[in-house]
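ESCALATION

Customer reports they have been waiting on this structure for their group meeting. Please prioritize. Original submission:
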Amino acid sequence: MRSYLDFEKPVAELEAKVEELRAVGERDGGISIADELSKLEAKAAKALADLYGSLTPWQKTLVARHQDRPHFRDYVERLVKDFTPVAGDRKFGEDEAIIAGFGRLDGRPVCIMGQEKGSDTQGRLRHNFGMARPEGYRKAVRVMELADRFGLPVVSLVDTAGAFPGVDAEERGQAEAIARSTDACLALGVPNVAVIVGEGGSGGAVAIATANKVLMLEHSIYTVASPEASASILWRDSKRREDAAVAMKITAQDLFRFGIIDEIVPEPVGGAHRAREEAIDAAGKAIAAAIAGFDGLPPEQIRDARARKFLAMGRKV
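Update from on-call: job pushed to the front of the queue and completed.
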């Protein structure tokens, strides 16, 4: 059964009427309702398209967090062949908030990693809601260094509210681990492509998203802090989250305009959670095209291009 966000209520009502009418047609086969059903379906589709064509930043935040949105494992299962995960950071232990390994994307050997939020209660607890501890970022560094050694492009799928803020994470050097991971991204002599597929939150996202090409799904968000946290800091009132979402320019459209990201990957009408396979395939094509753009370039040129990209951010032309 499809779950609806609060602002989708008008669409939910129309689609409920469509299902009711369809059920009547199936039960009473002698009644012709094809025309009426077609008109109602068209009305529901238009309402959905109009709604998603003018989402506010806060509404996009809710879509980016939708529980049915594809997660890291969904992308890997559909796009990556022969995926072999790597476990542990060789220093402390395993962190399942970040999954990293190797496989074939569009026939090309790659390193792929990303946050996994989990799709049910058990999975969310197992993966800590996609919020990594230091060992998760140190695992990412380990895998990136392996990829660099063997000349494999690095793909990062970002979907996290941020790094885990717990005391145990701080005790094990959370800030240092994030910095090391960011530095490892910048040092790569192979191309790296990051895709914000849901939430891109704080340093927890930047740690694996400091890439040659940064892509965002159409209704994803990328931000230094969540709208709720930012509202609490700025106005001491988390209820002003909608104001914060607007002021912070966290949408793909704003970030593309400012040159923070390189490409927006269109989502199916109604968001990636409505047509998961279609959304995953669109992201896969965009990733493959981005990697192909670096074919034949030497490591020094790839590294320098990445450095220039980030040094140019925020500078006046």
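Sent to customer with the following note: The chain is about 50% helix and 15% strand.
Escalation resolved.
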